[in-house]
Amino acid sequence: MNVDLVVLNRAASTIAAAALTEGILLGCKDEDLYGRYTRAATLLAEDERCFAESFLRIKARSRSLSEIDRDRSRESSISSSTVRPCFCV
Fold first, then answer.
1. Among the listed residues 42, 38, 40, the one whose alpha carbon sits nearest the alpha carbon of residue 14
2. Cα 50 to Cα 34: distance, rounded to the nearest angstrom
3. How far, in Å, CA of 1 to CA of 81, rounded?
4. Residues 6+ apart with CB under 8 A from 44
5. Predicted TM-score of the model (pTM)
6. Do 16 and 45 form a contact (C-beta atoms < 8 A)?
7. How is 39-75 classified by DSSP, letter by letter?
């Protein structure tokens, strides 16, 4: 059996979240801290995944635009910028 030990406070959020949700807990001195850290790590990993997916979709769409459409898109996003929450299901 292969074993990977992960220092959670130094790991990327995606690795920490995977270790916390799929790994085997070897020991825990503070259940409350463990629960709060697990929640924070998984939320951050989900946010990063959502951002990356959104970025890749935008990048793919921008490749297909002509130069004129890109300029129009930039102008309209500056004049009517709205903040939209990102939800991944």
1. 42
2. 24
3. 52
4. 13, 17
5. 0.60
6. yes
7. HHHHHHHHHHHHHHHHHHHHHHHHHTS-HHHHHHHHH
